[in-house]
């Protein structure tokens, strides 16, 4: 049986749907934090296991009888390594045969403030001795509208990047790549995949694509992180959103997403959707 954690989240749900589609006889269990959160999955034939990464004994129960585990990284950043450690330790104890984990692109280079938690989790998985398959996911393309703020209305896009390019990939296709991996898990043992689309773009190039598709001039300005943070504070954005935006800005400025690999293409069996196509659809839905 395959256990998918974060099963009611965006990536978990997409992975489960695609796996059910590709391998209808797959035995799938989903880890959710309450029965209610698992109601929709249950209707699809997914076995519901209730557990919380922060509660070791709940995870210990949830991993019983599991052969393959997809650990979707926790969305709560506080104590994230400890949360993941609980899952890895419980998996080891339950004799899980393979762990898939969703990390960040080039995690070991630790270029993003988000990287250390992922690098440490990868290390814990490798040290556990359980065969592993790591999907080092870049940032979701679906998040581009969040990075843009009100740029499409004002024609002005101010965001820090220090001229670095960013490679974004569709979350829905990451789910597909995961489903393909889980479908033939044995073929992917002890592998690390860098999940990116086929091209990284500078923010200036992205503004160019937005202008071309919308017919409206979008001007990009590369601002320092301190200035960006001050602007967000002046707008009155909640603290946690400012913190997340600043982390994103640091990720861009450090060149943490300025990488392109063909692992996603190989896992999908076709070229991943590019940012140019995404922008055309986003601007003219
Ligand atoms: N690559 C990127 O651009 C990017 C962007 C954002 C996040 N991420 C990472 O990728 C992961 C998957 O993305 P997503 O879009 O599917 O996120 P999502 O929709 O927010 O789903 C996160 C899932 O994790 C579960 N979860 C959070 N804390 C948990 C805990 N303590 N115990 C058990 N389950 C817990 C959530 O359960 P509840 O519904 O109960 O909260 C939810 O099912 C995120 O969790 C985050 O680590 C990546």
The percentage helix is 40-55%
Q: In CATH, what is the homologous superfamily of one domain?
A: NAD(P)-binding Rossmann-like Domain
User: N- to C-terminal separation?
Assistant: 39 Å
Biggest sheet descriptor: 7 strands, parallel
Q: Which CATH class of one domain is shown?
A: Alpha Beta
Listing every helix as H and every strand as E from the N terminus to the C terminus, the arrangement reads EHEHEHEHEHEEHHEEEHEEHEHHHH
How would you portray this structure in words?
With 285 residues, the chain is α/β, with parallel strands linked by helices. It has a domain at 2-138 and 168-195: NAD(P)-binding Rossmann-like Domain (Rossmann fold, 3-Layer(aba) Sandwich), CATH 3.40.50.720. It contains 13 helices and 13 strands. It has helices spanning 10-22, 39-43, 56-62, 80-93, 115-128, 144-148, 151-154, 171-183, 203-214, 225-235, 239-253, 263-268, 275-283; strands at 2-4, 28-32, 47-50, 68-71, 98-104, 132-137, 139-140, 156-158, 165-166, 168-169, 191-195, 201-202, 219-221. It binds NADP nicotinamide-adenine-dinucleotide phosphate.
Q: Strands, helices and their partners?
A:
Elements: E1 2-4, H1 10-22, E2 28-32, H2 39-43, E3 47-50, H3 56-62, E4 68-71, H4 80-93, E5 98-104, H5 115-128, E6 132-137, E7 139-140, H6 144-148, H7 151-154, E8 156-158, E9 165-166, E10 168-169, H8 171-183, E11 191-195, E12 201-202, H9 203-214, E13 219-221, H10 225-235, H11 239-253, H12 263-268, H13 275-283
Helix pairs in contact: 1-8, 3-4, 4-5, 9-13, 10-11
NADP nicotinamide-adenine-dinucleotide phosphate binds at residues 5-6, 8-12, 33, 37, 52-54, 72-76, 83, 102, 137, 139-140, 143, 171.
């Amino acid at each position: 049986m395959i256990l998918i954690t974060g099963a009611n989240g965006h990536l978990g749900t997409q992975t489960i749907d695609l796996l059910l589609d590709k391998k209808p006889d797959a035995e799938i269990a989903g880890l959710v934090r309450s029965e209610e959160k698992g109601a929709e999955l249950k209707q699809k034939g997914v076995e519901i296991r209730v557990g919380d990464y922060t509660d070791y004994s709940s995870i210990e129960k949830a991993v019983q009888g599991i052969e393959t585990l997809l650990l979707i990284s926790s969305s709560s950043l506080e104590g994230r390594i400890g949360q993941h450690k609980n899952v890895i330790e419980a998996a080891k104890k339950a004799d899980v045969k393979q762990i898939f984990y969703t990390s960040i692109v080039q995690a070991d280079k630790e270029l993003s403030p988000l990287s250390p938690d992922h690098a440490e989790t990868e290390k814990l998985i490798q040290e556990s001795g359980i065969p592993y398959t790591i999907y080092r996911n870049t940032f979701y393309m679906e998040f581009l509208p969040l990075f843009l703020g009100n740029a499409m209305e004002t024609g002005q896009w101010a965001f820090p990047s220090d001229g670095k390019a960013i490679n974004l990939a569709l979350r829905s296709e990451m789910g597909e790549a995961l489903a393909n991996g889980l479908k033939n898990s044995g073929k992917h043992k002890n592998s690390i995949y860098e999940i990116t689309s086929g091209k990284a773009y500078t923010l200036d190039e992205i503004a160019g694509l937005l202008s071309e598709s919308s017919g409206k001039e979008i001007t990009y300005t590369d601002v320092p992180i301190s200035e960006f943070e001050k602007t967000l504070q002046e707008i009155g954005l909640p603290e946690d959103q400012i913190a997340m935006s600043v982390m994103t800005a640091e990720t861009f400025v450090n060149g943490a997403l300025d990488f392109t690999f063909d692992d996603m293409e190989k896992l999908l069996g076709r070229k991943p959707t590019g940012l140019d196509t995404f922008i055309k659809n986003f601007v003219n839905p």
